[in-house]
Protein 1
Amino acid sequence: QVQLVESGGGSVQAGGSLKLSCAGSGYVFSSCGMAWYRQAAGKEREFVSETTGLGSFTYSADSAKGRFMISRDNDKNTLYLQMNSLKIEDTAVYYCAACGSNDSGYVYWGQGTRVIVSS
């Protein structure tokens, strides 16, 4: 079955960086668009960034532009999110999603990895 496993979360000070990873299995990795979402405590899940199957097109939310970069390595079946200049408001559980788009919805979801940004 399809599995998405996120890793790389943790605690970091404001201004620092983290790189999240999402390993996919159980489907043809390069055939699916993938995305990162996040959910802060008490808030709804929000879109962060997405990329097409071959990684040729990416799109990010305004909150991520200029600070976060989504990428993928289809040889390693892994999606990444490089997060720089982290802010306290970036604190959330980050989820990867596969097969779909932000407009139409994603079919598969990971279990999430927690990111805590402190001052």
Protein 2
Amino acid sequence: HVQLVESGGGSVQAGGSLRLSCAASYYTSSRYCMGWFRQAPGKEREGVAAIHADGRTIYADSVKGRFTISQDNAKNTLYLQMNSLKPEDTAMYYCAGGRIFSLQSGVYDYWGQGTQVTVS
């Protein structure tokens, strides 16, 4: 059972940057696809970015060109670099692991507890 722990959230002004991290309990990149999701109050959880075990990435249109997903296999850690942040990026951000390369949350098996990002 994979355990995921997010960190790096916080409050930032519009136009600023944050880097989220997701530490996995064991080596995941060769077996799982990893993704970042977010959920704002009153809204459904939405896929932000995902990375395949072979390195392919996909992004939601709303974050293309601003966010970058990456992983450090040696550290069993997933990252989300977020630049040019906007108030509409405000949400709880979750990392997830699964066997299907997708931005659909329903196909992911393992979830972290989330880290809050607030952009003002």
Protein 3
Amino acid sequence: QVQLVQSGGGLVQAGGSLRLSCAASGRTFYVMGWFRQAPGQEREFLAGINWAGSRTAYGDSVKGRFTISRDDAKNTLYLQMNSLKPEDTAVYYCSAGAGLSVAYSTTEYHSWGQGTQVTVSS
């Protein structure tokens, strides 16, 4: 079982930046990702990174603005969010899965962080 503890998030003005962190503990994991969920909407894929940290992928809504990275020495996953927009407001989740390649679907991840609110004001 992998435990994921998130930090970061909060309130920011449009155009601003935030960084989310996700500290992992427990058994070995490979792929990691970030998702978000707004009220009344499905959980949306934002970014994923493979086991080696050599490949990343992004959802269309955040491509060019968000950057996923991992520091395996610290067992920590990051999401750097720049040029934030009011439509980025949601609860953000980190996730871990047992595959090797970047994973895009929630069904490919078996562990989830507790979620953190990000609110972008206009």
